């Protein structure tokens, strides 16, 4: 009879531990990245009766409290650095001692020192980039001091209509910005002058052009005039005929007087001397050019600039960023350029149930879990990244309430076993009377 008493007590203890797990799950129902726990019961070794094959159980015990790693629901946010993992895997974060922890809570921000950090201040780990190229080295993702390097202009193109009915000697100017090797901005001015129709070839319309480059308010010509000045011609339909198609006009260096340009900045390909360091006017296109030529016409309508394009740009500071489903962090800079600046790394484990909870939605690797298998999002069975999202707790209120009811009933029943056994033992003690 005493066995039933101890069995009832074991039921009370087991149900009490189950309530501890349920209470913790409910308390963390709004904790980002939280993974609920479960309760696994097992019967205690049974006792044989008088050496026979009959056995009487000795109660129940909690054999395991496993972490349930099921996917939590996603909540949308306004922050580009709020990330959720759609599928398997964990984010990696390092504390100040360099110890690595694993989490599903992707509430990240640019914290102290410009590093991408979690809410605990731990540094997010990822693949590091150099000049926009993935180095495949894993380390702390830093967003500090990022800058887009300047690029010297090498090509430009002009989309313009030059009025075929303009008076002889009428001047039209197209001006656009180009950049030197230090990112300095300069105005490239193309001056078009209407030629006398009386000396034009029959049925054609011609304009003289002259190119100038500005530096500190001073306009200078190219060091050679063979390309910086010339003539363009349109046919009777207003189409450009000279220069011929697929023959770009190439200007030699727009050399700036060294007295006016003490920095020594260059243009184009960065060469020196006549015929090098060129800025090329892409008029009709060329197989070797990167710019698509803009259309030039000679219609009988007012002269107008329709489009002005050029390569090259100034230096730029990081303005904002975005993160793709592959975890690549793209930076957008004030000079209009974009470049990869890092990639989030994810980890998975051979035995996820072997991870140890460390609080703050963090997990630590153990001998049971095995070493972390690190890879890029979407590779090696890992899930993808969902930006502007957070994975919420996977604790389900309805399920926890049902578990609470069953735990309460089991506790009441075990208590009834104890009280009934006590009554039976009291009756036994009363037999003497």
Low-confidence runs: 256-260
Instruction: Report the strand count.
Output: 34
> N-to-C terminal Cα separation, in Å?
21 Å
Radius of gyration: 38 Å
Write the CATH fold name of the largest domain: Tick-borne Encephalitis virus Glycoprotein, domain 1
Class based on secondary structure composition and strand pairing: mainly beta
Helical content (DSSP H or I, runs of 4+): 10-25%
What would you note in describing this structure?
This protein is mostly beta strands and 433 residues long. The protein folds into 3 domains: 2-69 and 394-432, no CATH class; 80-143 and 323-388, no CATH class; 155-310, Flagellar hook protein FlgE (Tick-borne Encephalitis virus Glycoprotein, domain 1), CATH 2.60.98.20. 14% of the residues lie in helices and 37% in strands. The chain is built from 2 helices and 34 strands. The strands form 8 sheets. Strands 7, 8, 12, 13, 14, 26, 27, 28, 29, 30, 31 and 32 form a 12-stranded antiparallel β-sheet that branches. Helix 1 runs antiparallel to helix 2 (397-429). It is rod-shaped. The protein starts with a helix and ends with a helix. Residues 256-260 have low confidence and may be disordered.
